[in-house]
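Supplementary Text 2. Reproducibility record for the structural model of the 634-residue chain.

All settings were left at their defaults, and a single model was retained for analysis rather than an ensemble. We include the record here because the model underlies the residue-level annotations in Supplementary Table 4.
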Amino acid sequence: MKKTIGIVAHVDAGKTSLSEQILYLGGAIRSVGRVDKRSSFLDFNEIEKERGITVFSESARFTLGENTYYLLDTPGHADFAAEAERAVKALDFAVLAVSAVEGVQSHTVTLWNILKKNSIPVFVFINKTDRAGADVQGVLSKLGKEFGEGFVLCENLSEAAEEIACLDDRLTEEYLENGFTEESFIPACRKLIKLRRLFPVFSGCALSGEGVKEFLTALDKLSETSYEQEGEFSAFVWKVKRSKSERTVFLKILSGMLKAKDIIDGEKINEIRIYSGNKSSPVQEVSAGDVCAVSGLLKAKSGSFIGESKGDSELSVKPALFAKAEFSPDMDSMKILEYFKLLEDEEPTLNVKWNERTKEITVRVMGTVELEVLEDTLNKRFGESITFGEPNIVYMETIRGRSHGAGHYEPLKHYAEAHLLLEEAPRGSGISFESAVSTDDLSLNWQRLIETHIFEKEHVGPLTGSPVTDIKFTLTAGRSHLKHTEGGDFRRAVYAAVRQGLFKAQCVLLEPWYQFRIEVPTEFTGRVLSDITKMSGEFSPPETSGEKTSVAGSCPLSEIMNYGRTLSAFTSGKGVFFGSLTGYRECHNSDEVIEKIGYDKERDIENSADSVFCSHGAGFLVKWYEADKYMHCK
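Retained model, structure tokens:
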């Protein structure tokens, strides 16, 4: 049986130490590495060794009995949550490591939401039980309070049987009638784990190895997978890695088989390799359940599905900051842009932008640590000294209610017209599209092309030029010409229709919000609550335990992004700040932000809302506010 497991955790919860112990017990490594000694098997990148944190997801293979395991070690720092989420999508089971002292932290919540969204079964390892202040029962209680029922300490399965039985009516009847028997309980537990109704909890100390062998034995017994080996080939791309000579695509095979020289989505597989850390071995074929790397795929994107598989490639976490690259004027900007594009191929959320007018390169990031790693990467991989300016907030725009947009593109020997209904969508839903046009009126291939043009570009709003989100687009009418319509014609028509619809709509500026938990000596509680109020934030009633008080809430990122430093200063380092992005809300100071950005929608010629019509053999431009009366579709 093949199983892919992944270790996920808030930074410093001991995730890498747990990975090392599992690989050692599985025979993948001969000795247990340590983060502080820069000898971790999966943290082999120079940047990771220097910083003592996991930055890149890596894989290793080991065996337990007749089972083959693939272990994915993921970053624990919130700045690399996108990298972690793509790895999560490749998992059969996740191991959530939680510190026995710090317990559930802000990024633990983010990771849990990612696991929940992707329906990944979860085992929990409460780590660092050797530390002063360790409280396994307290953490267990917090897990249940934060994430719901199903967390059961399973270090002794017979003792946990009654609590597990309560999670399922049939198992309750079985337990009351026959008590605990492995023959009935093990299969039942496996089913409950797969359904995410049971989350087995274990505890120990990963650094010393205490409790890890017992945990791994239980995981092996309580987990099972089934893959369709004979089906059509499908796979998930969980990572892309670039070198000077090769593009390596890392796959989790979901169904079917893959052989070297196979043609997948029009591209030939040159080589298949199985990785363990930074070492690999070539194989001629892999099948469902395997994790491998291939060369030859140039179009497959990180986080996407290939072959017959279709799935949700949308990430829960997205960067809410952007920063401008700063480099010497005598450096070749096009060469620098090329380097950034290579990095974007590995990390698509960088969303690299080149401004032709200002000759500036901007990237999107999760935080300042990611910027620091980018600087290191550019230096070490490409030998370039590039820094970044202070990060700025990535605002978004949406609409309230609905509006209609129309675009027409008809210079000589070209023709396309598209009409779109724009409707307000639920917050966080993103962009969606559907067609209400009959194929008798507009052929299916043109309708599909229109849908492609909706999603291929990051459309921007009229308030600040920020990307738009949470809008449903419906194609209500469209027209082509038998002789003169080409694919690019509908691109121009759709872009104009989207833009005109936004110009006519009631637009709303959105900003990212941060959920936080602040722990301070009780004497500073009043100051913290006052600060949160001044920052336009909101909070739940403070919780006091002993001499410490914990305050949880949420706040605009623009207000709280640097509060950790402020907190450390007035508490003399005794205050602790945990936070993570929680989504977008209506901007609390829209007028101020709009005025500061100073965006002029009419001067943005790259995002024009105007249409082009034809008269007497010549094309002419019609401004967006006059274009409706010229449209051909009614």
